[in-house]
Amino acid sequence: MTETTSAFGSSRVKRGLADMMKGGVIMDVVNAEQARIAEDAGAVAVMALERVPADIRSQGGVARMSDPDLIDSIIAEVSIPVMAKARIGHFVEAQILQALNVDYIDESEVLSPADYVNHIDKWNFTVPFVCGATNLGEALRRITEGAAMIRSKGEAGTGDVSEAMKHIRTIKGEVARLSALSKDELYVAAKELQAPYELVAEIASTGKLPVVLFVAGGVATPADAALMMQMGADGVFVGSGIFKSGNPQARANAIVKAVTFYDDPSVIASVSRGLGEAMVGINVSDLAAPHRLSERGW
Amino acid sequence: MSVGVLALQGDFREHAAVLRNLGAEVELIRRPEELARISGLVIPGGESSVMDKLARAFGLADPLAKAVRAGLPVYGTCAGLIMLADSVIDGIRGQQTIGGLDIAVRRNAFGSQTLSFETDLDVPVLGASPVHAVFIRAPVVETVGPRARALATLPDGRCVAVEQDNLLGTSFHPEISGEYRFHEYFLQKVADARFRH
């Protein structure tokens, strides 16, 4: 028998759970009943929160980590992974979420930031983190701080997919650009991206991020979800898009199928029928700048 | 003929990359008609409840179960192991499996993600050097029936790798740790099965 030591919370273990969620849909839920609907519909994980982004947006005020009782009730209801959000830089909320045994923490711009300078030092935790990004430099800074998964931010709570599109195109485009650079140019690229040279050089050689990349913020229909998958996303987060729609169960089912068959228009067409009303959207261009959540985080 | 990787959800691209590195021709499988083109199948890691739901919704579950019983070599990791188990403990409401392995598997047997881990594991059929095994919200084989055989156990005695004729299953993920020997072992089963036909 070999002498064995087990490692908990290693990068491989943290990033590995995100690998297992690829090709899947992570759904925002605000209570155990919604969590049950999400699991039955084929969600790969649920995001437990008190208010979906559309309500945070309309109700205003400071948005914080959810009540531990709410998170407990959702963990008790489902057997798929449960994620929960902490405010940017609020490492005590993250400590609490880890103590509650959530499976992933989202350090999220959807909540009100707790620190306008620093993000959480995510290496200090056993639980993995997902963070939002609007471009490659932001993604690499989060990975440097220990994020084990990245989601493009989009504009949460709008049902407008245009920001999500902009962010995934930006990140994919910047990764592709790095692959074409010579070594001396990579030093400058690292400086411009405000990210460590080693990480930049790794991406230039592999042609992809070292962690899983999901898309979030504005996905409301099966077609939106398939669009993001065709753009090269590893999977999608759907926030307000499901439970703010006319028939959450049918829409959740349909989005799951559209993500698996993202490149088959006949399947996407068939699952898009009879879903009732999509969430009422807000055009991102109609939002005044202070109300754009994607501009939180840096 | 090529080797398929079930591509409904999960880390199917990692499996495809390992198999291609070992020289296999790989097809990603999502539809029943695609099963005719393959001489072996890998069911990847992912969420077993999602794979089960999609496999049934798109008519893949029954033909796959028939193919397994007709001798198609299949290797399942984590969620894939659950899909191959005759019986699943702690599944979601209504969860079904393709079955074939005479085992009972407990889903998510270690607890939340903070209890996921990596460790070295002795797997005698793969040789003396240990396998580096990554367990992510992993299942364990709680009961090994008379037709199945345990290939590896944790120090506490819990079974985490099994085989039975054409079938191979592991609780952990060789596809993300650079460990190729399970896939080689599986490709040998594929080659043997083709020879027999």
TrEMBL record, chain A:
PROSITE patterns: PDXS_SNZ_1, PDXS_SNZ_2. It holds the Pfam family SOR_SNZ. Pathway: Cofactor biosynthesis; pyridoxal 5'-phosphate biosynthesis. GO terms for molecular function: pyridoxal 5'-phosphate synthase (glutamine hydrolysing) activity. GO terms for biological process: amino acid metabolic process; pyridoxal phosphate biosynthetic process; pyridoxine biosynthetic process. The keyword Lyase applies. Its EC number is 4.3.3.6. NCBIfam families: PRK04180.1, pyridoxal 5'-phosphate synthase lyase subunit PdxS. Homohexamer and homododecamer. In the presence of PdxT, forms a dodecamer of heterodimers. This is Pyridoxal 5'-phosphate synthase subunit PdxS. It comes from Cryobacterium cryoconiti.
UniProtKB/TrEMBL annotation, chain B:
Gene3D superfamilies: 3.40.50.880. It catalyses: L-glutamine + H2O = L-glutamate + NH4(+); aldehydo-D-ribose 5-phosphate + D-glyceraldehyde 3-phosphate + L-glutamine = pyridoxal 5'-phosphate + L-glutamate + phosphate + 3 H2O + H(+). L-glutamine binds at residues 46-48, 107, 136-137. Its EC number is 4.3.3.6, 3.5.1.2. The keyword Hydrolase applies. InterPro entries: Class_I_gatase-like (IPR029062), PdxT/SNO (IPR002161), PdxT/SNO_CS (IPR021196). The active site is at 78 (nucleophile), 173 (charge relay system), 175 (charge relay system). One of its GO terms (cellular component) is cytosol. Keywords: Glutamine amidotransferase, Hydrolase, Lyase, Pyridoxal phosphate. PROSITE patterns: GATASE_COBBQ, GATASE_TYPE_1, PDXT_SNO_1, PDXT_SNO_2. GO terms for biological process: L-glutamine catabolic process; pyridoxal phosphate biosynthetic process; pyridoxine metabolic process. Belongs to the glutaminase PdxT/SNO family. In the presence of PdxS, forms a dodecamer of heterodimers. Only shows activity in the heterodimer. NCBIfam families: PLP_synth_Pdx2 (TIGR03800). This is Pyridoxal 5'-phosphate synthase subunit PdxT. It comes from Cryobacterium cryoconiti. The gene is pdxT.
